[in-house]
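Slack export, channel: ligand-projects

TW: morning all. Re-posting the request from yesterday since it got buried. We need the structure predicted with the small molecule present, not the apo form. The ligand is zinc ion; the SMILES is in the block with the sequence. No rush, but it would help planning for next week.
GE: picking it up
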Amino acid sequence: MSSKQSSSDNASPSPQDLLKLSKIPGNESCADCQVPKPQWVDVAQGVFICIQCAGIRRSNISVTICRVKSLNLDRWNQAEYQHVSSLGNLIVNRRLEAKLDSETKSQFVHSGNSKLMETFIVSKYVHRVWAQDDRNTKSEHDEDPIMSDDRDHIITTRDQMITPSGHHHQPMINFLHY
Ligand SMILES: [Zn+2]
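GE: finished. pasting the full token output, ligand included:
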């Protein structure tokens, strides 16, 4: 038998590598709903997720923000592997759920309501409403503070309050002229 493809330039991580990654504490349950043994990975965000939360991403979120791959069925490239290795559920949740209290989270996650779960995932990854201010997470990037992620410029909806009922509360500003 001869291996047809010798893609050494873009070597995929081995199944063992991926398995090892999935056993890292935090990665053993879905980053969003905590279902055990998630078999899917958001290789853009760097989190392990269950099939339900993977499906919500696919139908609601652009692949430029969330990109889902199977732990076993898809081919990964080294860059994706390195990216996910450097992040993982614990690190990402610490950042993206920094301002989320456990009671609010459980209202979303344990609601059994897929619409609420959609709202939760979009709020968490797209609008980043519960994210830590990037300014406070500089320890990871020792670069010039001015050269921060361009995410800073995209995220402008962070101040919106999103509640489990799905309503976006935005301040109403009334100018009263008499
Ligand atoms: Zn999940």
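GE: first-pass observations. DSSP finds seven helices and five strands in the chain. The mean pLDDT is 81.
TW: perfect, thank you
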